[in-house]
Design brief:
301 residues, alpha/beta, D-Maltodextrin-Binding Protein, domain 2, 8-stranded mixed sheet, 33% helix
């Protein structure tokens, strides 16, 4: 649920046993990857003529869907080792969706907080970047649900500072800018000061990679992030552990223009087809994030 805020910037945990920052040079308007060819084994099957017929004319003519994405949020969307190719479970799922329409997905890296504006302004056909569905967003765009995530707290192994979720007053807690977790932490800090306790020292970073690195290095006593991202950081660093249970689960959604309701409904059908042929589940299993799978794909749930 990290991306519930209207303005947010994504972060990443680099693959491997150490954390490395995602360079700003990767966030350009240059295409950084595309879907496998329709009908390939990676997409789970070929195009559905009924879905192809529902493609907006612009996309049909181009033969590709222009996708706004912030590839700095492992394992959802991230850059591969070449620093150019976009990958992650979000990418694999949407590649399968694009294949059902007989087109490819052309991923255009962008700052997270610019993607919705890019979609409404026509720069991108769709936004695929772990956007949590909420009422404010649904007023601006159509959203198609495809996954569910919540908030997970993470601490260094052994929790040396003795952090608890309900007792973080006076602690240094890391969080990413523009996220629901920042809103969560701000409210918790106010409860602390209202009770006469020290405020939470919020260490707010632009990218989740920085937030995670702060916890791994000891600069922050704990962090909170979307559940798949927090759990992925634990797995990859080997130096962190989960604190408490996941809470406030909510669906992620693809972002489409308000006038593309027919296309949005067609994407729901494409997701159902991807689930039926196994490509949806395969994308989640590849990154060990099956826990967030859903079956009730819908427009603006």
């Amino acid at each position: 649920m990290r991306r519930v805020s209207l303005i947010a910037v994504a972060g990443c945990v680099a693959a491997g046993l150490t954390l490395t920052a995602c360079g700003s040079s990767s966030l350009t308007s240059t295409p950084a990857g595309s879907a496998p060819a329709p009908g390939s084994s990676a997409t789970g099957g070929g195009a559905d003529p009924a879905l192809v017929a529902k493609l907006p004319a612009k996309i049909k003519a181009a033969g590709k869907i222009i996708v706004g994405i912030d590839p700095t949020y492992a394992p959802n969307e991230m850059l591969a080792g070449d620093g150019k190719t976009v990958e992650g479970f979000d990418v694999d799922i949407f590649n399968a969706v694009a294949a059902k329409f007989g087109v490819t997905a052309d991923y255009r890296p962008a700052g997270f907080d610019s993607i919705i504006l890019g979609v409404t302004g026509g720069k991108y056909d769709i936004g695929v970047s772990s956007f949590t569905i909420n009422e404010d967003r649904k007023k601006q765009v159509n959203m198609v649900s495809y996954y569910k995530a919540g908030t997970q707290w993470v601490v260094p192994k052994g929790n040396p500072k003795g952090v608890t979720i309900e007792g973080a007053c006076g602690k240094n807690i890391g969080v990413q800018k523009g996220t629901v977790q920042l809103d969560d932490l701000t409210a918790r800090s106010k409860k602390c000061t209202d009770a006469g306790k020290p405020a939470i020292t919020m260490i707010v970073q632009e990218g989740q990679d920085q937030v995670t690195a702060d916890v791994a290095s000891g600069k922050s006593d704990a962090m909170l992030a979307d559940s798949p991202v927090g759990l992925y950081a634990i797995k990859k660093t080997g130096r962190l552990e989960a604190l408490g249970d996941i809470y406030d689960s909510a669906p992620y959604g693809y972002v489409l223009p308000k006038d593309q309701t027919e296309f949005a409904n067609a994407i729901v059908e494409a997701l159902k087809a991807a689930q039926k042929d196994g490509s949806y589940e395969a994308a989640l299993k590849k990154y060990a994030v099956e826990a967030g799978a859903i079956t009730d794909f819908a427009v603006n749930p």
